């Protein structure tokens, strides 16, 4: 697969993830909150938790566009990946805080599904953070090697 084709596929997945977040934020969570199956203010908490993930999607779009231009192992991509890792960590912190708030405020009245969903979001964001930080390190090192090779030629 060419860099351009890979870039387009990644951008499509990125855009679809934003659409999915918007649907969940505007339809799914508010309906569950109205039905009483999730705690009150779940919609607000979800929106706050998603703000860093929207930032991740914007930065990822720039990363994918760079890959499409053939700029794979460049320092800017390493920087983008680091920023994506930091934003993922921020989102994970929101989900962890939501779990704590559910325990403190909800006690036994918060359903098991709320804890499950928050735990999945937390695990996803932690995993995304780890992957982004690791890829940032590898991309940075590859950029260094590329720069050295470019200077020798």
Offer a quick outline of the entry.
By secondary structure, the protein is an all-alpha fold. The protein is 87% helix and 0% strand.
Structure explained in plain terms:
The protein is mainly α and 153 residues long. The chain is built from four helices and no strands. It is elongated. The model has no long low-confidence stretch (mean pLDDT 92).
Number of strands: 0
Structure class: mainly alpha
In percent, how much strand structure appears in the residues?
under 5%
Radius of gyration: 19 Å
Mean pLDDT: 92
Distance between the termini: 27 Å
From the spread of the alpha carbons, the general shape counts as elongated
Task: Give the helices and strands as they follow along the chain.
Answer: HHHH
Q: What profile does the largest beta sheet have?
A: none
- Estimated helix fraction: over 70%
Low-confidence stretches: none
Please give the count of helices: 4
